[in-house]
């Protein structure tokens, strides 16, 4: 994976968010647990569908959102109607640093060194200690502030983490980074807290989820 940064492209992407309506629509889509239609985004943002469509497509052009097409009725064939245009947060990462820094390179070098040396357990021990140092009465809020985008399931017994702050490294070193991530969150939620951390990998989300302890239900 290349570490080269197109600084102008990154600045353009962030500049798109300077428009208040556009920024609000980005937050609507980014906060949603699934794909969002133009109508739904417009309703939440309190703007017209036409205005929402214009700004959503600008966010797509900037690489901040992605588009899929799907029939919301679930039907297919003649008479099923046209597929709806749906939006979701882009998988592509944008990092702004002026002047440009190369922390990704350092992260990959460290990860490769730890993996070659077989230091998984040592890394997990440090991660668990670091997580414990962040323990609070609101671990879900702490994870939200750290960019994990927690989203409760319908029964509120399971919380999915829709974003992985270590996504790029986890793709290259999944066992090392996901083990570190699990240990970090285990330390954060604590051994006697309301939640327990478990591995729950899935597409487009963090490999860890929180499950409510039975005695806390």
Largest sheet: 4 strands, antiparallel
Task: Name the strands of the widest sheet in spatial order.
Answer: 4-5-7-6
Shape descriptor reads globular
Total number of strands: 7
Helical stretch tally:
9
Which spans have pLDDT < 50 for at least 5 consecutive residues? none
The percentage helix is: 40-55%
What order do the SSEs take from the amino end to the carboxyl end, as H and E?
A: HHEHHEEHHHEEHHEE
How widely separated are the two ends?
Answer: 44 Å
Gyration radius, rounded = 20 Å
InterPro entries: WH-like_DNA-bd_sf, WH_DNA-bd_sf
Protein name: Transcriptional regulator
Structural features, described:
This protein is an alpha+beta fold. The protein contains 9 helices and 7 strands, in the order H-H-E-H-H-E-E-H-H-H-E-E-H-H-E-E. It folds into 2 domains: 83 residues, Winged helix-like DNA-binding domain superfamily/Winged helix DNA-binding domain (Arc Repressor Mutant, subunit A, Orthogonal Bundle), CATH 1.10.10; 114 residues, no CATH class. The strands form 2 sheets. It has a 4-stranded antiparallel β-sheet, with helices on one face. The chain is globular, with a radius of gyration of 20 Å. The mean pLDDT is 86.
Give me the secondary-structure topology:
Layout: H1 7-16, H2 20-31, E1 36-37, H3 38-45, H4 49-61, E2 65-70, E3 84-89, H5 103-117, H6 120-133, H7 139-145, E4 150-152, E5 158-161, H8 167-172, H9 174-189, E6 195-199, E7 208-212
Helix pairs in contact: 2-3, 2-4, 3-4, 6-9
């Amino acid at each position: 994976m290349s570490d080269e940064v197109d600084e102008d492209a990154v600045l353009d992407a962030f500049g798109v968010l300077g428009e208040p309506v556009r920024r609000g629509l980005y937050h609507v889509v980014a906060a949603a647990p699934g794909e969002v239609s133009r109508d739904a985004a417009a309703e939440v943002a309190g703007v017209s569908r036409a205005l929402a469509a214009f700004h959503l497509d600008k966010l797509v052009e900037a690489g901040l959102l992605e588009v899929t097409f799907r029939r919301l009725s679930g039907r297919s064939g003649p008479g099923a109607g046209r597929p709806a245009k749906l939006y979701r947060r882009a998988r592509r990462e944008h990092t702004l640093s002026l002047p440009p820094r190369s922390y990704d390179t350092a992260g990959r070098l460290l990860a490769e060194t730890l993996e070659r040396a077989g230091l998984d357990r040592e890394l997990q021990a440090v991660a668990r200690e670091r997580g414990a140092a962040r323990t609070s009465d609101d671990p879900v809020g702490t994870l939200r502030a750290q960019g994990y985008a927690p989203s409760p399931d319908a029964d509120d017994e399971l919380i999915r983490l829709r974003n992985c702050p270590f996504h790029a490294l986890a793709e290259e070193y999944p066992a090392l980074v996901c083990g570190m991530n699990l240990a970090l969150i285990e330390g954060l939620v604590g051994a006697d807290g309301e939640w327990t951390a478990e591995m729950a990998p899935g597409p487009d989300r963090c490999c860890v989820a929180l499950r409510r302890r039975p005695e806390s239900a």
